[in-house]
Amino acid sequence: METPFWDALSPRAREALRAAGAPVVIRPGAFLMREHTRASQVFVLRAGAVKVWVDRDGETAILDVLGPGDLVGEVEAADGGIRHANVEAMTRVEALVLPAARFRSVLDAQPGAVWAVAAVLAERLRDSNDLRVAHFPDDPERRLASRLLRLAERFGTRAWEELPEGAPGAGAPEECVPGEGVPEEGVRVQIPISQQDLGRWAGMGRRKVAQILGAEPLRGALSVSRTAIAVRSAGALRRLAGRD
Questions:
Q1: Are 5-134 and 140-160+184-241 in the same CATH fold?
Q2: Residue (of 92, 105, 113) closest to 190 by Cα position
Q3: Number of neighbouring beta carbons within 10 Å of residue 54
Q4: Is 88:30 a contact under the CB 8 Å cutoff?
Q5: CB burial class (10 A; 0-12, 13-18, 19+) of residue 164?
Q6: Is the Cα torsion angle 9, 77, 156, 178 positive or negative in sign?
Q7: Beta-sheet pairing, 156-158 with 93-99
């Protein structure tokens, strides 16, 4: 996984953004942005999770799920265009918000900061291309596994209660470190994402998601509820996603 936008910035650039932005708290279900509007704000997420989605003829397609350190609104800040998607809080969200023009001014004044935005755009392009490739030929298992790994990398917390007593690392909960992959066992993703939402993100129906989760090689490797995902075998996900 790529380094989140916030972590890619220099300490000086982070301080400049803190000074230029305003801290906000967004309740679950509230919108940070709405599709087809011209709101000119940029958000830097500090805690919580949001989903980026579009409505096409009454059908919902989820484009991404973003979390701490991620950037929201960078495309519109760059081109001044209309919002291309809705951004909705899945949990309580803490963020820095600032006008797009001020965001651009901060980046212009901080050498190298613009490359952190370029890295965000490059990562999202690679992710989009990976999903597109997994449609030709159609490979729903790979698409679903890659979405689940993405969630574990972004939001995973070591679920110590799922590790055998006396297992290495038993102790206080600890977040997974972006860029270092997902631990092999005992990872919990504590965000409300249903099997239907996973399907909307991976390009398939809820029944297909349930079928893949209930069949080999994912049977027993993880469980999905409406409030959390428990990953018991990250290796099975990696193999299915083609990352081994």
A1: no
A2: 92
A3: 14
A4: yes
A5: exposed
A6: negative
A7: unpaired
pTM value surpassing 0.85 = no
Domain range list for the chain: 5-134, 140-160+184-241
In 3D space, the residue among 59, 60, 42 whose CA is nearest the CA of residue 51 turns out to be 60
- H helix intervals, 134-194: 140-155
Identify the weakest region by mean pLDDT among 18-22, 86-90, 93-97, 215-219: 215-219
111 prior amide bond cis, ω within 30: no
Whole-number Å distance between alpha carbons of 121 and 191: 24
CB contact set of 216 (below 8 Å; sequence gap of 6+): none
Residue 97, CA distances (Å) to 20, 84, 115, 215 in order: 9, 19, 20, 43
* Chain mean position to CA 24: 19
Residue-wise pLDDT tens digits, 160-183: 444 444 433 334 445 554 445 565
Q: Residue 180 corresponds to which tokens in the numbers above?
A: 């270092």
Q: Which two tokens stand for residue 91?
A: 């949990």
Topology (CATH) of 5-134: Jelly Rolls (2.60.120)
Cβ pair 185, 234 in contact under 8 A: yes
- Quick count: other Cβ atoms within 10 Å of Cβ 3? 15
CATH classification (class only), 140-160+184-241:
mainly alpha
Distance CA 179, CA 184 (A): 15
Interatomic CA distance for residues 178 and 156, integer angstroms: 9
